[in-house]
Design brief:
By secondary structure, the chain is α/β, with parallel strands linked by helices. The protein folds into 3 domains: 146 residues, Rossmann fold (3-Layer(aba) Sandwich), CATH 3.40.50.300; 56 residues, Histone, subunit A, CATH 1.10.20.140; 71 residues, Orthogonal Bundle (Helix Hairpins). The protein contains 13 helices and 6 strands. Strands 3-2-4-1-5-6 form a 6-stranded parallel beta sheet, with helices on both faces. Strand 2, helix 2 and strand 3 form a beta-alpha-beta unit.
Length: 296
Amino acid sequence: MMSASAINLDPERITVLTGPTAGGKSALALELARQANGVIINADASQMYRDLAIVSARPSPVEEAAVPHRLYGALAGDDVCTVARWVDLAKAEVAAAQAAGRQPIIVGGTGMYLTALVHGLAPVPAIADDVRAAVRMLDAAAARAALEREDPAAAARLMPADRQRTLRALEVVRSTGRPLADWQQRRDGGLGPTAVQGVIVDRPRAELNARAATRLQAMLAAGALDEVAALLALGLPADVPVMKALAVPQLAAHMAGAIDLDAAMAQALHATSQYQKRQQTWARNQFPDWQRVGPG
């Protein structure tokens, strides 16, 4: 298991724990918070939604009662938490924790949140409505081909299956005339690397896959199908963030009769594994100097 003894918390800096899903971040954060009079602040997009307590593996009510937890289950399913909005919320919680004499411990694996928090937000102008509509109408193959022509550097960085980021890069270059990377180089408003004590919680790939499989089974036993059924009953659009959270599309497909439960679980595990891989790559590229901790 992960041990908090490997981490010497700096009370003068904000602690950030990140790493792949199912890696043990939440348990480590709880241990650290107990030792350091800490406040745990969520940086996981799925755990922001109150409708996904089970499927997002949100800390249990007992764990949340043990030390203060902030930004967990804070939003309704039809709400959208942009990166900028999360950064504002997180900064407010950091300030409140510090004012109360507590250690802020930010925990989560949503890379866009943490990059923006540390390095700042890219000042991308608002995307023209007609450009956004045209880009969103493209299928995956057409969007990928267009990005390779119009922003080859972005296409080289992004995985072909990463439709969301492909569409974002394409709409930015079409609407502004500049690649997204150009705007990202102008980031501002971040806390800065020196204000943060970064820790990457990681495990070998095989162990991560095994832990993800165990967690999916535990979610199912805890009532994941009922939770997804309640989410579907809200009639939310399929493209809102809460409907795209890990395991939700696969369990929804099963409940619609499109696939059996075993297939849904296998597809959910595959999606989780792919996400873990992207999270590991992001952490290595964005924060190569952060402390890395593994099972001890």
